[in-house]
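Subgroup meeting minutes
Present: P.N., E.W., G.H.
Scribe: E.W.

1. P.N. recapped why we're keeping a running log of single-chain structure predictions: easier to compare across weeks, and new members can see raw inputs and outputs side by side.
2. G.H. added today's entry (186 aa).
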Amino acid sequence: MWKSANGAPSLSMTRRIALARACIGLACAPIVGLLLDIFRDGVEAAPIDPGETIVVLPRNIQWTPWPGLPERTGDMAQLYGAMNKPGPYLVLMKWYPGYFSAPHTYATDRLSVVVSGTWWVNSGEDFDPGQCVPVSAGGFVRRVARTPHYDGVMKNTKTPAVIALFGMGPVDLKLVDPSRPPWRKL
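Output recorded in log:
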């Protein structure tokens, strides 16, 4: 055995192990490279079937202003389904700085993920942006059906917040105070 008097591996054993590992590595490297070349040359990916996989790149997302709101208040991009029809939907919502929704409710739960920026959210019928909670990119918010809430982006913010919203339609949005506009300017 290649052990020293104290039972530790001797220097010669350490060298032999290192030499053996180096030889194995040198012998395997060309084989691995050859296999990679064979598979790279022999395998081709099929093109995406748009009937099976739909891809929309960010530059191709169609944003439209929210109807009935002042210009540069908020935009929406319908990615899947429709909020006013039965079934699942997925939309992107963009709130510009200085604007909030008025307190409102939905008929169904809504799941939200902040994609970029900071979205300020709160619950309740009383509009008080100072009590809102900031939710930054990557944050999750669940709106429970038929509970009043409001949200938006503080006016001192430099960029809009983009939020991905998923739920089941129809949403059936109802304002807490229908005599007032559906948005608030800070």
